[in-house]
Every structure is written in structure tokens, then in C-alpha cells.
Design goal:
This protein is of the alpha+beta class. The chain has helices spanning 3-35, 41-141, 160-166, 170-173, 185-197, 248-283, 290-322, 334-351, 371-387, 447-458, and strands at 145-149, 155-158, 203-210, 221-231, 237-246, 330-333, 355-359, 366-369, 394-402, 407-414, 462-468, 472-480. It has ten helices and twelve strands. A hairpin with a 5-residue loop joins strand 1 and strand 2.
Length: 483
């Protein structure tokens, strides 16, 4: 305790003691004076009590005043001590506060940078997602089969065309090794070799054929495979993209064109060679009499007609296939068209003593058809029936009307040599002729092909054939009745 505080405490106790002492002295004197006057003792007691009470009140007031002052001094001393301690600790607190503020600023900046980075990553993720979706959409829209593999030869992406060709589900096959998806070892080998080559920016184009199905009679499908190696920034192989383009139909068309040119050349050369030979004999004077000369002229005329028919058939088929032919469909009586064709073929049938049997429906049944083209188709069928029927045979032409189905069926059957079973699937192909029957009659192999185009392509009907070797053939076509 400090000296100022100690002196204040002593003073607070000394002051009431002096007051009490003074009061007691006064009371004693006063009491002694009153004692000399014994007639009034109660007054002296009251005076003494009043004086004692006054002294007590004065003392209590003095003590309270001293205590209040002492408390104020203590608060001042405590405040000064606190200020002093704060002033002593202020530099450290300032440094600590500065460091904390710096840390807070650094944390805020880090959080702001992280927030910006997160936003940038979200934007990049959205862009990548959109690009991936676009890539999938583009991939699915490609008609060719597309396979994308990773550095481990596992499937990353494939379109529906690839799934149909290799018979797997593209959505479920992702992440599966290609050797478990693809059944063709050649394609698996090509993908692996391309990945191992790490040919950055290069590609390989290979033609490969594999079976269309499990049936060995099915023709192989031919694919042009384009392989590209996808590399990363470090020139490491990141995967392979394989695009398979089906060129089977292109090869078939190319082969058909080659066969067509070859067959046309052969068919044109034969009548031209005959015409040229007989003309040369006429020029050389080998026809010495009128009869021989007439025979030469007849051969030349026959071969010229054959050549004309060949050219006409080729042009007719070409126009139908290209869609350039002008079709004039009108309600026509099928029976009338059939009778006109029968009248034309009758002389040829009589020359071989062939009987033509007619089983035709009434003329009022009509079908919507191009009269000239349908007539040409019927005439070709009747001509073939007569040519491949031996002498004294029979050719039957029949029509059957199915009113509930609104259809009419026409049959042209003969008692001829028939067609071998192995040749039946090809009788409607251009320039195809059965080897077993080629010596029996001359032909170009275009008649039945033209009939098929007229019935199915022009009139949207159905052309069928059935045959048995030695017992004859039956060609039938089905058309819709006119309303």
C-alpha cells in the first residue's frame, strides 16, 4: 500500500476519535454542571443521548466520505495500472494484429483466386461437356462405322453403325478391350499396329473383307478401313480412330458395269459378225443363184432385227433404271393386252405346233398400267415360253382375279425344258442365260430383266418364277386392279 493511501486511512479513523473525545469532554463538563442541579436529572440524560447520537452520525458520515474517496483512489490507481500495462503490451499487440490482418488479407486473396479458378474450371468443364456431346452427335450421324480406342486398346467411343456391323451395344461397350468386342482378328491387329506405330498425323487406308454372316453362301462385305493415330503433346500414342466404309455395293456396281459392258460387247459382236460375213459373201459373188442370195438376205435381216431388239432392250432398261422413261398409266383391260400379245406370238407357236391355251377373265376387269410397256412384258414372257417349249408342246396363259384383295394374277406357263434350280435365282439378271438351255434358242439375256423392271419398278407389282427341269416353267406377275 502506498503512503498516501495509508495516511488517508489513518486520518479516517483519527477524525472520529477526536470528535468523540471532544464530545465526551463537553458532556462531562455539562453533566457535572447539571449535577449541581439535581432537580432536573432527566434533562441531563436526554442531552447526553442527543450528543452521543450526533457524534455517531458525524462519525458515520466521515467514514463514508473517507471510504468513497478511498474507492476513487483505488479505481484511479487500477485504471492507471491497466493503461500502463496496455501501453507496455501495445507494440506486441500491434505486431500481432498486423500479422493477423496480413494473414486475413492473404486468405481472402487466396479464396478469391480459388473462387475464380473454380469458375474457370466450371466454364472449361461445360465447354468440354458440350464439345463431347457435339462429338457424340456428329459421330452418331455418320453412316460409316467409327471406332475410337485408347492407349490400352480399350473402346472409348463407337457409333450405332459400328454396333450393327460388329453386333455389340456401343453404350455398354465403352472401356471394354477391342479383342472382346470385335470378332475379326484382322481389324484388331490393324488397330494395335497403328497404335504402336505412333504415326502422328499419318493414316493408313486398307481394304478388308469379312463374312456378312455365318452362312458361307453369303457374300463377304468389303470395307475400306481408314486408321488414324491420335497422339498426345508428348508424341505418345493416345489412341486410334478407325473408320470403316462399306464399299460392297460399290464393288458390286462396278462389277455389274464391267459385266454389262462385256456382255453387251459380246451380244453386239455376234449379230454384227454374221451380218458382216454374209455381206462379204454377197460381195465376193458366192451367191450364184437367186435362192442362195435370198437366204443370205434373210440371215442378214434376222441378225439385224436381233441387233435392233438388243439395242431397244438395253435402252429400255437404261431409261427405266435412270427414271427417264415417260410412263403413261391409264385404266387398261388386262385381257385385251394379253389377247394382242397372243395374236403376235401365234404364228411362231404354229410353226412349232405349240398349242396356246387361254384362261382369261372378262374384259371389264381393268388395271392401271402403261399399255405399251405392259404389252412388251407379256410378249417377252410368251416369246420365251414358245422358244423353250419343244414341238407339239403347250403354252397356257391364265388370269385370276382376287376381288377382296383388289388384285389380279397373270400366269404364263409352258411344258418346256424347265430351268435348273441353281439358275432360278439369276434368271432376271442382265445377260444371264442358263447354260443348259442356251443351245436350244438364241437370246440376249435381257428379256426377263426388262420384264422385271416393267412389272416391279414401273407398275409396283410382283414377278415370280417356278420351274421343274423337263416339265416346264411358270412365270407369274401380280398387279393391282383399277378402282
Amino acid at each position: 500500500m502506498r503512503p498516501s493511501v495509508r495516511s488517508g486511512v489513518i486520518l479516517s479513523y483519527l477524525t472520529p476519535a477526536l470528535l468523540i473525545g471532544g464530545v465526551v469532554s463537553l458532556v462531562s463538563v455539562y453533566h457535572l454542571n447539571w449535577l449541581a442541579r439535581p432537580s432536573r436529572p432527566e434533562l441531563s440524560a436526554c442531552a447526553l443521548l442527543i450528543l452521543a447520537s450526533a457524534c455517531a452520525v458525524l462519525w458515520i458520515a466521515t467514514v463514508r466520505r473517507q471510504c468513497r474517496g478511498f474507492g476513487v483512489q483505488l479505481r484511479d490507481m487500477a485504471a492507471k495500472q491497466t493503461l500502463h500495462e496496455i501501453e507496455c503490451a501495445n507494440p506486441v499487440m500491434n505486431k500481432l494484429t498486423g500479422s493477423i490482418n496480413d494473414l486475413i488479407d492473404l486468405a481472402q486473396k487466396s479464396m478469391e483466386n480459388a473462387s475464380r479458378r473454380v469458375k474457370d474450371l466450371e466454364i472449361q468443364l461445360k465447354v468440354v461437356t458440350v464439345e463431347r456431346q457435339d462429338a457424340k452427335a456428329i459421330l452418331q450421324s455418320i453412316s460409316d462405322a467409327v471406332l475410337v480406342t485408347d492407349p490400352f486398346d480399350e473402346l472409348v467411343m463407337a457409333n450405332e453403325s459400328a454396333g450393327r456391323i460388329f453386333q455389340f451395344d456401343p453404350a455398354k461397350a465403352c472401356g471394354t478391350p477391342v479383342d472382346k468386342i470385335l470378332k475379326d482378328p484382322k481389324i484388331i491387329e490393324l488397330i494395335r499396329d497403328m497404335r504402336q506405330s505412333r504415326s502422328r498425323g499419318g493414316r493408313r487406308i486398307i481394304e478388308h473383307a469379312f463374312p456378312r454372316g455365318e452362312d458361307p453362301r453369303d457374300q463377304d462385305r468389303i470395307f475400306k478401313i481408314t486408321l488414324s493415330c491420335v497422339c498426345d503433346r508428348n508424341d505418345g500414342a493416345a489412341g486410334v480412330v478407325a473408320v470403316l466404309h462399306d464399299i460392297s455395293r460399290e464393288r458390286e456396281v462396278a462389277q455389274m458395269k464391267n459385266d454389262f459392258v462385256s456382255n453387251v460387247s459380246h451380244e453386239l459382236r455376234t449379230p454384227l459378225a454374221s451380218i458382216k460375213a454374209y455381206v462379204e459373201m454377197l460381195l465376193d459373188g458366192e451367191a450364184e443363184d437367186e435362192k442362195t442370195t435370198r437366204e443370205f438376205y434373210e440371215v442378214i435381216q434376222s441378225e439385224a432385227n436381233r441387233l435392233s431388239r438388243l439395242i431397244d432392250n438395253i435402252l429400255s432398261i437404261s431409261r427405266i433404271e435412270s427414271g427417264l422413261v415417260q410412263i403413261n398409266k391409264q385404266p387398261q383391260s388386262l385381257t385385251v393386252i394379253l389377247k394382242e400379245a397372243i395374236e403376235v406370238i401365234t404364228p411362231q407357236a404354229k410353226s412349232k405346233r405349240i398349242t396356246i391355251v387361254e384362261k382369261l377373265t372378262p374384259v371389264f376387269y381393268q388395271t392401271k398400267a402403261d399399255k405399251d410397256m405392259l404389252y412388251q412384258a407379256v410378249l417377252n414372257l410368251l416369246s420365251n415360253a414358245v422358244k423353250y417349249t419343244p414341238d407339239a408342246g403347250t403354252v397356257t396363259i391364265e388370269t385370276i382375279v382376287d376381288e377382296p384383295q383388289n388384285r389380279v394374277l397373270t400366269k404364263v406357263s409352258d411344258s418346256g425344258v424347265g430351268i435348273p434350280p441353281k439358275d432360278l435365282p439369276f434368271v432376271f439378271d442382265k445377260f444371264y442365260r442358263s447354260e443348259a438351255n442356251s443351245r436350244m434358242a438364241k437370246g440376249t439375256g435381257l428379256g426377263l430383266s426388262l420384264v422385271k423392271h416393267i412389272i416391279e419398278n414401273v407398275h409396283q407389282g410382283k414377278l415370280l418364277v417356278s420351274s421343274e427341269v423337263g416339265r416346264g416353267s411358270c412365270f407369274s406377275f401380280d398387279l393391282e386392279l383399277a378402282a
